Amino acid sequence: MEEKLKLDAIDLRIIEAMKRNGRLTKQALAEAVGLSATPAWARLKRLEAQGVITGYHARISRAEQPLPVRVLMEITLASHRHSDFKRFESAVSDIAEIVSCWSVGGGVDYFLTVETTDIDSYQRLVDRMLAMEIGIQRYFTYIVTRAVKDRMD
User: Fold this and answer.
1) Is residue 79 within 8 Å of 145, Cβ to Cβ?
2) Alpha-carbon distance values, 151 to 19, 68, 97, 102 (Å)
3) Cα separation of 124 and 37, whole Å?
4) Which helix (H) or strand (E) holds 111?
5) Residue 28 and residue 34: Cα distance in Å, rounded?
6) Could you give the CA distance from residue 30 to residue 5 in angstroms, rounded to a whole number?
7) 131 φ/ψ angles, rounded to the nearest 5 degrees
8) Above 70 in pLDDT, residue 62?
């Protein structure tokens, strides 16, 4: 059985600093977390090696992206066997337009974020997903009109 990682207060400060700015220099990270440069950098590298920090990404202005339509989908599956969830999740992971998918508890099974060039492209994607017979019983579509807060942008 895997042992859960133990993160101390300095590890948590490193994570927060890197969430705010993934391009911090060794010295800037050290100043942000109250360590000297070498131990701060060693801790950062340990967090990366342990899979706590999994990557660094550029934030691109939505206005400059070639995919101007963002849609949120709410999906409920027809059946709730383990194999049904696995089949759906496997299919979703191969669809490029689906940029995020969360399995949730409550009245629905999944929330998805979809990015396409236009509404017609989105509808073709939905038609394709329904034709794949991946267990979708019902879905609801919410067109994003503007981002009020989006830490993923």
Assistant:
1) no
2) 9, 17, 19, 16
3) 52
4) strand 110-116
5) 10
6) 22
7) -70, -25
8) no
Parallel, antiparallel or unpaired: strands 98-103 and 110-116: antiparallel
**Cα end-to-end span (Å), the chain:** 36
Q: Is the pTM of this model over 0.85?
A: no
Q: Tokens 């979703």 sit at which residue? A: 92
Tell me the Ramachandran region of residue 71: left when phi exceeds 0, alpha when psi lies from -120 to 50, beta otherwise.
Answer: beta
* pLDDT digit string, tens, across residues 105-135: 988 999 999 999 899 999 999 999 999 999 9
Give the ranges where 21-118 is alpha helix by DSSP (H). Answer: 26-33, 37-49, 82-93
Compute how many other C-beta atoms are within 10 angstroms of the C-beta atom of residue 42: 11
Please state the length of the chain.
153
